[in-house]
Amino acid sequence: MTAYWVNTFTAIHDEERLRRYAELAGPAMRAAGGRFLARGNPVDVLEGDSALRTTIIEFPDPAAARAAYESEAYQEALRVLGDAATREIKVLQGVEDD
């Protein structure tokens, strides 16, 4: 069943390292079967605190999302990012239409 990787940045400490991370992370996600559905700063905040940047990536299943995270290419992107940002990453399982 489809899974969605939701990456929410709550603090950005170094824009240049974040840019370099994104240059590496994007291709790593696509190589692992991910498809970007949305990314960027919110266009509107209806409730709660405003997150700085959110990315939603679709994967064929939760295992594919986990494999993308654990891939050497993504781990290299994480090494570049280091402590340049604070974020949360969650994988949600998709729902089937009734």
TrEMBL record:
Pfam families: DUF1330. Coiled coil: none annotated. Residues 2-95 form the DUF1330 domain. InterPro entries: Dimeric_a/b-barrel, DUF1330. It comes from the Bacteria. Gene3D superfamilies: 3.30.70.100. This is DUF1330 domain-containing protein.
